[in-house]
Amino acid sequence: MCVFAVALPLLSGLAPPASAKDHFLVVAGGQEAAKNQVSLEKNVLFFRNVLADAAAPGADLTEYFSSGNADIPSVQFESGDAKVPPANGYMARLFGSTRYLNLQYRRHTLGEVDGITSAANLNGWFDDRKESLETGDRVIIYVTAHGGNGRDKSKPENTRIFLWNRQSIDVRAFQTNIKKLSPDVEVIMVMAQCYSGGFAHSIFNETDADAGDFERPVCGFFATVSSRESAGCTPDINEENYDEFSSHFWAAIRGETRMGKPVANCDLDGNGQISFDEAYAYTILTSQNIDIPMKTSGAFLRERSRFREDDGKAGAQLLKQQTGYAQTLELAEPVERAILEGLSGPLGLSGDSRYATVERAAAAIEKKRADLKKQDDDKKQTADGHRNAIRDTLLGRWPDLANLMTPQSVSLVSESADEFVKAVEGHPRLKAWNKIQKEREAIDEERFKLEKQWARCIRFLRAHNNVVLAENLRHLGDVDDLARFEGIRKAEGGGIGEIRAQ
Question: What mean pLDDT is predicted for residues 84-110?
């Protein structure tokens, strides 16, 4: 079982005072009931267990969850007992949408939370603590919600967290709140929402590296890069099926999964403690999803370091992107080394040219996915032809189906359901339509499987790049950049625990 982590020194390198405390802020839930999947609620419950096992006494915990304490059915779930009647299923497939068809809603089971997820509550949380937080205190922010890309295409890293009632808060607004705190207070983010990687750029002013460094000690770990959706949000009530970033991350910190199974081999540096960084590595190696996790130190390296260019330009002392694996592994810190070695097996890698091998594999996977998409597009045209033929026949018999809310249309999924089902199932093109739809589903499953393989390739390439860029940053010789990088890495090496390193 994993040993619980302890916190490492602050970015300043000074040991925190004995009275230092951790302050936890949980931002959870969807922006509306239809987006508030039960997995988001269960993530909050799991995080409570993590804190109960590992947090320092006196830790301050604030939880904002979707609709707060309103007595409304706001949590979406899928029950195995819920059966969609055939008439409703056919009506949805032919004339409407199957989205949300087999889902139900209930009030959340978290008990009393601190309020709804709103910009006002988040702003107020930072206002309330800007005077009370002291040197050595840390703010640990856990976001298990939905996210969106940036509204301004010229600032793609300024991504958003969606809040209740379709509100949102972006990276820049988050930075404005962090500025309210003392510069001696660390902020650590663990974010699982789509496009969460934009928040890795909170280390730069206005998310823009050209605008300089954001002068606050912040670091974080994110489910995926700023341009991609992440895995995880599901109405499935079976937690054993959950394969999302924060489930693995907190399992490593806690020492056991949400199902109570022990988690081993997390202590990568052998110091008897599990750090955030080690939990991040465990997540990359364990999750089987489409995520491309990232952390703040990686975002910093991609902006402040570079690879050698074999074009006669200055920088011959720098390493090239496709540096040999043996040299890269020798330079790697324990976390990156574990990722590279841990992914080499599943990717079938050996020898010194692993970077180039993975690049080729990723490109081949992308081509396969593109070919499958073309196949699906072709099949969709055929499927639409079958569907439209069935629809036309039904509309000829029941013209009221032009509007699904007419009394006649409603009756076809209630008192006249048998007649409607018989008409659909008696259509000569239904069998062909069902067949091609199953073929499309198989293509979609294969494309999804390939995307997960592709994501694993990209995880390897990014870990390799992090090692090479870190070494090149040292050769570039910018003292301020190097100090900032080392400070971020120290903060990423912290964790949750009763003991704080001196």
Answer: 94
